[in-house]
Amino acid sequence: MEQTEYGKKRYQQWVKEVSPNSNLLVNCAKAFVGGGMICVIGQLIKDLFLAMQMGEESARLATAATLIASGILLTGLGWYDKLSEHIGAGAAVPITGFANAIAAPAIEHKREGFILGVGAKMFVIAGPVILYGTVASVVVGLIYYFVAR
Prior knowledge:
Elements: H1 5-18, H2 24-51, H3 56-76, H4 79-87, H5 95-108, H6 114-121, H7 126-147
């Protein structure tokens, strides 16, 4: 069934009425500061590992693992969603956001079982990111390989 022009305009008007107004500048500032704070915490964790006489590469890997584990823990406790409400995209961009994107669907669908629930739903959000990130890296790698020869 084809929508009439009047129906489209009515729908757009309704969406405009029920959608909350947001201040783009404030949202960008919150995301910048919030995401930056997560990165500062990551730097402090790395500095702690370096102070424990860990090598540079080991400290970087341990920092990433700690941030991922923290993101999963905060998601499991229900705190990551509350954090996201305050800092918006700032919570989605760092590695903790990626951990949240994998953990949240897994936790939500655990009642469906480990295979069809957790296993199948775990990569619903993160799967396309992993897939297209991998494909893009292969394409860039091939271009680099043939251009650098």
